Amino acid sequence: MTFELVKLTQNASTLSLRGFSIPTIDYQVNEQGSVYQNFNASWQGDINASASTCSVGNVNVNLGSHASSVFVNTGDKSPAVPVVVNVTCRRATPDVGIKIDPVFLTVNASNGIFSLDPGSSATGIGVQLMTQNGTPVNLDLPIKNSTVAATSFSFPLQAAFIKTGATVRSGSARSSLRTTITYQ
Asked: Which of 20, 45, 53, 111 could form a disulfide with 136, with the two C-beta atoms 3.0–4.6 Å apart?
């Protein structure tokens, strides 16, 4: 028999159950009025659980203004701009990571390239997210920080515009990412 507690709401942070408040489970096998097997499961003691709650603030990044002549060949990029995602946890939490998903379209997940907001007037470019050393971030995988328990984590990244289309047309260029915090 397996007894499992499942967190069903976003704001459930602590749980305390007294053993006597959990119902006893009784299972009997009867045949012609006789009990052949009787199983009884009850809980003794207390269950105290608490969920680590971590958060990340809004990160706004200005990739700057660049002439369309910067983007000659597909894959040409503007200079990269530092992006730091800071995660803060209420209590020391091990194995924290982040998963980053474009709000709009993913152009090339394994190379960290995603599209502009459909309301942007610029065309032929997207945005590339990279690690601090310039390696593209795989948008299909979480970015891990450390397995050591801590209350704050920093994920240093960088971003740049990248030519994705045959022709680049200047204009406004906006995009958005959704950050999901992963921890165990």
From this structure: 111
Partner residues linked to 152 by β-bridges = 88
How much is the pTM? Answer: 0.72
- In this structure, what CATH number is given to the domain that contains residue 77? 2.60.40.1090
**CA atoms of 49 and 16, how far apart (whole Å):** 6
> To which residue do tokens 């397996």 refer?
2
Q: 64 and 152: one domain?
A: yes
Q: Give strand pairing partners of 25.
A: 41
Tally of structural domains, the chain: 2
32 contact partners, CB below 8 Å, separation of at least 6: none
Q: Are 157 and 184 in contact (CB under 8 A)?
A: no
Q: pLDDT tens digits, residue range 82-118? A: 999 999 988 888 888 999 999 999 999 999 999 999 9
Backbone angles phi, psi at 147, to 5 degrees: -90, -10
Instruction: Say if 67 falls within a structural domain.
Output: yes
Per the structure, the complete domain to which residue 69 belongs is given by: 54-182
Phi, psi of 21 (to 5 degrees): -90, -10
In the 8-state DSSP scheme, what is residue 57? -
Regarding whether 101 and 27 lie in a shared domain, the answer is no
